[in-house]
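Page 47, continued from p. 46.
Same chain as before, 250 aa.
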Amino acid sequence: MNDQTGRVDLVNDKPADPSLNFPNYLSGLSHDIRTPLSAIIGFSDLLIEPRLSRTEQRSYCLMIARSSRKLLDLMSNLIDLAKMETANLELFFKPVFIKDLVEELKIEINEMCSLYEKKHLIINYNTPPDQSAFFNADKGRVFQVIRILMENSLRFTKEGSITLEIKQDTPDLTTIEIADTGCGIEKDILRILFEMFPGPEAPLGKKTKSRGMSLAVVKKLCDMMGIVIEVRSWVGAGTKFTLSVPRRAL
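Result:
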């Protein structure tokens, strides 16, 4: 749904529909592999130049690091998707203490802020006052989901803030929100946000970027853990992802 403020909402509580437009998928995947590889090779060659300034060296090294991370994330996502499609991805449910989870996320996000040169952004962390608060899930996969969502926020937010808020509304429900003040998501993109193979109705030039693959992983992991994911976006003003995590029995 959308309103006059430019807000677009999407609630996904059903498994993602893998509409198999495979040629478009392969074309986008080829682009996502070649682009970071070309950057790694190109900037590595430039580092050999003897007259580089320290500023240029730092800039080239950051570009190599960013491109390497993109390539690593892409391959990791491909492996995870393959495991999920063949029912070979195992989940290990146990108590996830919110305090510990957020402390680990802070370290990861600080590194990403440096990598993407986004140290000027304000990163907010709001957590329950109860230091022993927890929910039951696969900690590593919940960490992966939040990291992907926050990394997307970093990439698409030029100024302002990113907020991670975790709330326990009831003993049986934990809510995780990742909100940013970035560019927002257009309505036509929002419709296919979690699709691994966007169909022929996908807008030209926006079919299969690495963001789409990472969000396909997010959606499938949420489905496997019984987490409902909801997206609200205001074009030009920001996006909010909400994860509703049930406290399942172990």
